[in-house]
Amino acid sequence: MNSRMPVQDRVIVALDTPSLDEAESWLRNLHGVVSFYKIGLELFTAHGWDAVNLVQKHHGRVFLDLKLHDIPNTVSRALRSVCEHGVDIVNLHALGGYEMMKMARASVEEFSKGSGKRPQLIAVTILTSHSQETVSQELGIRRKIQNEVLHLAGTARKAGLDGIVCSPKETAMIRKKFGNDFLIVTPGVRPPGSSRGDQKRIETPMKAIRVGSDYLVVGRPITQASDPKQAALAIFESISNIKS
Ligand code: C5P
Questions:
Q1: Are 232 and 13 in contact (CB under 8 A)?
Q2: What fold is seen in the domain 8-188+199-239?
Q3: Which of 22, 82, 92, 148 sits in a 20 to 30 Å window from 42, CA-based?
């Protein structure tokens, strides 16, 4: 758990845009304020490794949000390039299963040999855009979301993963069950008064930190603000004195 880390290092800004120029304008705007960025499917499918290189050129750390989900062999082989590019965090879907996660974890270790730096490998549990209704009716999962997240987190931990992605609504439960040596990254974070967009299981930054999330992933509340830097600073201010 990273409670001793400065708050500004615990907010990961999602660079969700298909434009490298727009991503660079956010990086310039947030320079000296934000140190960690998430590259997700939108930017990665448009620009691939150029997007990763861009963030690293601006001295940002990279969470590569690829949400890998395929047969074990394919996922582990895809991780070779990820390791070669020196990203800090990469993720896969826990729903890919134990064998997939275990093999991926071993590959990350192997592909990082000699580089002195291994990406942290974390598992998405249940997307924060899902509600109990969609999980039951569309995915056919019978458990309550909380129990399903707990179950998937346990499988990820058993497979040797470094942590999980979950909603801040599930953080306290996961922290209690798995202790401090398990990374919890939470999207679904919304400052009071901001639009929830397509997110369903949301909390404020203050609450997410208080319950023990290590990192908060924040996209639109910062990138779509009229002044992204001010929006980021307001979030830091709101979490600066929270004890987690
Ligand atoms: O704009 P917003 O703050 O909703 O962005 C959240 C980001 O976190 C998006 O890039 C989304 O892909 C990502 N994410 C998520 N839920 C997960 C995993 C990742 O919202 N479970």
A1: yes
A2: TIM Barrel (3.20.20)
A3: 148
